[in-house]
Amino acid sequence: MKYAALVLMLAASAFAQDKPYSLKGFTVGESTLQDFKAQFRHCADNCSDKAVKKYGVPPKFAPFCSDDYPEARLTPGREDTSSAYTQAGLVYCQPYFPFEEQRGLQFTIADIPATTQFDFYQDKMYRVSATFYASRFTAMQEAFTGKYGTPSSITAVDYQNAFGAKFTGSVVTWDNNESTITLR
User: Fold this and answer.
1) Contacts by residues 165-169 (CB-CB < 8 Å, ≥ 24 positions apart)
2) Cβ of 103: how many Cβ atoms within 10 Å?
3) Sign of CA dihedral 11, 109, 35, 46
4) Average pLDDT, stretch 29-36?
5) For residue range 133-152, what is the model confidence (pLDDT) as tens digits?
6) Cβ 18 vs Cβ 174: under 8 Å
7) What is the secondary structure of 46-109 as a DSSP string?
């Protein structure tokens, strides 16, 4: 099963006049952690009083963020705890818990299911990254071209998997001097 990736990042530019890219109403460099948590807040598990009484476990509320669930391995190195990152002002969030996907709740980009992470530094969103099935790459590229216009660049790259199979893929980039979207 092959995966493709999407990264939306803030690019520092002193003379930028363009507005940063946004995704589903979240804008890099502008959207806050509190806005994200408010939009995606929902009870994910043990939501009824009956479940709480039966299992003795309090409800779990999403979104799934490293500052609320420090042992969740949401950090870039998948460390056992995110406390050092949180102290430095870095918080990593997913709109849904991983187990919610089995219940049919899944974040989508252009109607394409994607495992998506929103990253915040000092309360501002600075990066969105997502993985999705490679078979949906063309559909994702077309959707982004429709929304953001012609890509700044398209580069062919060679890949090789762990079994030695080789294939050629694309790296598609949109850059507006304020933020960058990379689809690979």
Assistant:
1) 169/4, 169/134, 169/137
2) 11
3) negative
4) 96
5) 999 999 999 999 999 999 99
6) no
7) S-SHHHHHHH----EEESEETTT-TTS--STT--S--HHHHHTTEEEEESS-GGGGGGT---EE
Single-letter residue type at 10 = L
User: What residue segments make up the domains of the chain, in order of their start?
Assistant: 3-183
Q: Check residue 13 and give its pLDDT.
A: 47
Tokens representing residue 7 in the block: 């990264």
Are the beta carbons of 163 and 146 closer than 8 angstroms? no
Torsions phi, psi for 12 (to 5 deg): -70, 125
Task: Check: CB of residue 134 under 8 Å from CB of residue 4.
Answer: yes
Collapsing DSSP to helix, strand or coil, 35 comes out as helix
Give the DSSP per-residue string, 157-168: EEEE-TT--EEE
pLDDT of residue 1: 52
Predicted TM-score of the model (pTM): 0.86
The per-residue pLDDT for 12 is 46
Residue 100 has pLDDT above 50, yes or no: yes
How far apart, in whole angstroms, are the C-alpha atoms of residue 184 and residue 171?
Answer: 4
Q: Bridge-partner residues for 160, per DSSP?
A: 166
